[in-house]
Input
Amino acid sequence: MPGTRKALAYKRILLKLSGEALLGEKTFGIDRAFGDYLASEIHGVQSLGLEVAVVVGGGNIFRGVSDSAQGMDRVSADHMGMLATVINALALQDSLERVGCFTRVLSAIEMREVAEPFIRRRAMRHMEKGRVVIFAAGTGNPYFSTDTAAALRAMEVKAEIILKATKVDGIYEADPLRNPKARKFDRLTYLEVLQKGLKVMDTTAISLCMDNHLPIVVYDLKRPGNLRRLALGERVGTLVKE
Output
């Protein structure tokens, strides 16, 4: 609907989901009910005409820098973490397709039986055709987080903003789950995030966004409708921008 499209604040976004986002109420693995909730939130904005790409982490299954990876070769551990993101991407794809959303998983590590290889122009074409694109396997390289993969993919496909979905409603000076008196920031610059050592995204990802003028919004993924509000230009969470 043309009237609805005009109301959108962006044409194309990249949504960053941590692997822990798929935990829902579980302590390990994937909470299917929460995956379905995420799918409905994504489908809600995609049906408005918004082009959506997603980068998902793998921390709910395996993280290269986790305690369980201690003593392992870092490259091997990171590769295991990348494979965990593929499992999450396939789970999210299943949830999205059950709510009627056409979806493609593109992997930075080639595994043609389960996902398409990442090709930039193909990814952009999928989004232009109204498909949600899920980027799996990070950057395909060890030592790079899925936050960095999100920044990289967002710039490659010309997304206008990164929306980082978290368990809290923005960026705080300290962990609000541990310190209820922690102050929330409504807006920050990239340099402030780096100088204050705020654990929003890793420094490589923040620096990449800063160098390429790509804004980031950190918001609460558990509050229904937040993604839609952001898509329509409402102030939600914390904005990181120049």
About this structure: The longest strand covers residues 12-17.
